[in-house]
Amino acid sequence: MCGIIGVVAASPVNQLLYDGLQVLQHRGQDAAGIATSKDGRFFMHKGPGLVRDVFRTRHMRNLEGNWGIGHVRYPTAGSACNPAEAQPFYVNSPFGLLLAHNGNLTNAEELKREIFVSDLRHINTNSDSEVLLNVLAHELQAAANGFKLDAEAAFRAVANVHRRCRGAYAAVVMIAGFGLLAFRDPYGIRPLVIGRNDTDEAHEWMVASESVALDVIGFRMIRDVAPGEAIVIDMQGNFRSRQCAQQTMQAPCMFEYVYLARPDSVIDGISVYESRVKMGEFLADRLRRTQPHLDVDVVIPIPDSSRPAAMEMAHRLGLPYREGFVKNRYIGRTFIMPGQAVRKKSVRQKLNTIPQEFKGKKVLLVDDSIVRGTTSREIVNMAREAGALKVYLASAAPPVRHANVYGIDMPTRTELIAAGRSEREICHEIGADGLIYQDLEDLKAAVRSVNPAIGAFETSCFDGCYVTGDITDEYLFGVENLRGQAGAAGDDPDDAQLDLNLVASGDN
User: Fold this and answer.
1) How far, in Å, CA of 164 to CA of 286, rounded?
2) Is 2 a catalytic residue?
3) pLDDT digit string (tens) for 73-82?
4) Distance between CA atoms of 159 and 23, rounded to whole angstroms?
5) 104: which of 164, 189, 407, 492 fits an S-S bond (Cβ 3.0–4.6 Å)?
6) Of the listed 2, 165, 244, 253, which one is catalytic?
């Protein structure tokens, strides 16, 4: 779940790209990069770390030009850290291309073989984003037929990318002497939105992973990029779009609404905040229906993503809502930190209790989801140590029982606490006095109620149904092997630094 952004403006874009990446930082904390262009030249700076740490004044001054792209990187399972896998990626043939990608190609290994044997191209890293870039480069060269590239050729190239690539992908691409190209996979799994700012000089355009990036910079959101659609914005600000996939299905990733996206974003016409409020409404009804005997004194959210659901649960159940945890905002999100040892250690660095909100009370803790269970177990223990008489836990999402292959860091079933366990067994594992999960159909209904036009969602981590239709047991076994090898190093306390530096074979 990386964050991507692309801007074509009437004035220098370095600050716009920086500001946009700052508000997309939650989508990736491993690395950041910006590329711009002026007078036919590309300028780029990228490196490991947060946006604020990667870029200094000298770097910003060197990022010249009125159009460019940016990326914040989130690693999933894979190999040892390689700074070369920070994005954007560059190839100089044809035309000169820079690409930033959010997603995961499920047929990356097959494509690598094709690229080497048939396309006669070379891959330098383990990143599937570099694979995507080289597939696009080959198809652009074929579509242009050796002549100057135009929008029609670009659309033909993206159509062939859709034909060859499988999985989830949203991408922004700079093409030297041509302009900005952006496209989204035929299932619309990963988000991509379009915004515009009208000046006296020209229309300025932006594409980004979330609408919040548009808001902060002052662009007006126009719409989402449709599944399978490609857009072309030339350096004069002229905008063209085309549906490039033969078959499409709008199935946005449900975890964007549950956890990944910022609450102030709108994705595929669905307010993330409003969808989380609805999750709380449906979960409260389920609690009342299935566990009416539960004696609760207070509802407390586990910051931050669960707050809207917790507030609505408290309201609907007629219970007090209280803030019982204080979050240290200088600690990274534990969900995207690889390795159980580091994750467990970071929980108490990240959260601290307000004892008076727990002492002598029966508390209902509300979380957005329960993935590995490590964080939940620690938080339940913290509530007890603060004096809670009973600790119940509610999850705004259903049990996570299956691997995600579309760009979220939960690839091995052995790491998922709900895999192979009943809710009673999960409750025992995390040490709670009671546990309630959202029903999957209720979750779909909650999010769909905000935008009834969305008929399907990508929910494979809950139900094991992979919308792209190409995921086999053999593929899942291979992914789990990669993740297991990485996790084995991270679980050793002596390898804590290595664990922090693990990166992805899929840049998500």
Assistant:
1) 43
2) yes
3) 987 654 345 6
4) 31
5) 407
6) 2
